[in-house]
Amino acid sequence: MEGIKGRVALVTGASRGIGEAAARQLARWGATVVLADLREPEGAQVAAQIAGAMFMPLDVGCEQSWTNVVQTVVALHGRIDILVASAGIYQTASLNETSLAFYERIVRVNQVGVFLGMRAVLPAMRERGGSIINLSSTSGLRGNQNSIAYGASKWAVRGMTKVAAMEFGAYGIRVNSVHPGLIDTAMNHEEMGHERIREVGATVPLGRPGEADEVASVICFLASNASSYVTGAEFVVDGGSTAGVLRRAFDARPPGVTQGPIAGQKV
Ligand SMILES: NC(=O)c1ccc[n+]([C@@H]2O[C@H](COP(=O)([O-])OP(=O)(O)OC[C@H]3O[C@@H](n4cnc5c(N)ncnc54)[C@H](O)[C@@H]3O)[C@@H](O)[C@H]2O)c1
Predict the structure, then answer these.
(1) Domain CATH number, residue 218
(2) Ligand 1 pocket: which of 39, 185, 215, 235 to mutate (most atoms <8 Å of CB)?
(3) Of 31, 44, 95, 150, which one has the fewest beta carbons inside 10 Å?
């Protein structure tokens, strides 16, 4: 893909999952990659396997941490051309059981982390332009049960991406959001287990969960010159899960349950 070779890419959440896959693919297309994450040994190990790459510890929810990373990258490489904001946390809880601390913890990483990241790289990108790719989710496109905090953070990423695209366009900086569906990564292994990933994956039109590499290739498209007129846009990578309503979703109702309460009916 043209336009990645020779560029400097900062990838958050790069110690594993989608961030790791994006870091590896960007490097394959010729970028100098800086991997940043909370998980230090894992990230350093991944960076050691990528030619010319380095790892830096980063807590995306911490302003000072961003200042340190951006200053170091600019001191070493003189520029940042690509930011992939993949760091994120996913935990489910019903709205009723979501404590304020739980809500704020998820928003801090997924939402505030993306805001701080876009703001931090702006000075380093302003002169030459660049591409920012923010990881939202299909949970940022529709409601998902038991995801009040995660959903709020991912809708915010989708919205902030558009605001940044409006404001950064004048500098030649493109900002887009990527919306994965169910991807087979450690994040889901931890939250739902391998078997459940397979079961849920089987219900989407393509009949399987996605791979981190399948999201990374869309990220690379957005980082490259192939997407030079694309900004403020949403890229759904979900095997078709948001394409429409699956028959199977109705078939999955418990036996005997045919409809919800009729309007006005007392429940
Ligand atoms: N896997 C999916 O099915 C899926 C679906 C939709 C959206 N997403 C989004 O894609 C992104 C990547 O997901 P993934 O599946 O690769 O997850 P993952 O858990 O495998 O990787 C996320 C990485 O982010 C890092 N991280 C967490 N908090 C951090 C912080 N405060 N500062 C820096 N790094 C931090 C973790 O250490 C981890 O290495 C996330 O934003 C996630 O919400 C994933």
Answers:
(1) 3.40.50.720
(2) 185
(3) 95
Positions annotated as catalytic residues are 150
Residue 62 confidence (pLDDT)? 98
Task: Check pLDDT > 90 for residue 112.
Answer: yes
Is pLDDT of 37 > 70? yes
pLDDT at residue 250 tops 90 = no
Q: Report the chain's mean pLDDT, rounded to a whole number.
A: 94
Which of 10, 15, 37 to mutate for ligand 1's pocket (most ligand atoms within 8 Å of CB)? 37
Instruction: State in Å: Cα 84 to ligand 1 middle.
Output: 12
- Ligand 1 in reach of 177 Cβ (< 6 A): no
If one counts the domains in the chain, the total is 1
Residue 252 covered by a domain: no
Determine, yes or no, domain membership for 259: no
Query: How do strand 234-237 and strand 8-12 relate by DSSP bridges?
Result: unpaired
Domain range for residue 33?
Answer: 8-243
pLDDT of residue 260: 55
Is residue 251, in this structure, part of any structural domain at all?
no
Nearest Cα to Cα of residue 65 among 108, 17, 129: 108
Q: Is the CB of 40 under 6 A from ligand 1?
A: no
Average pLDDT, stretch 104-115? 98
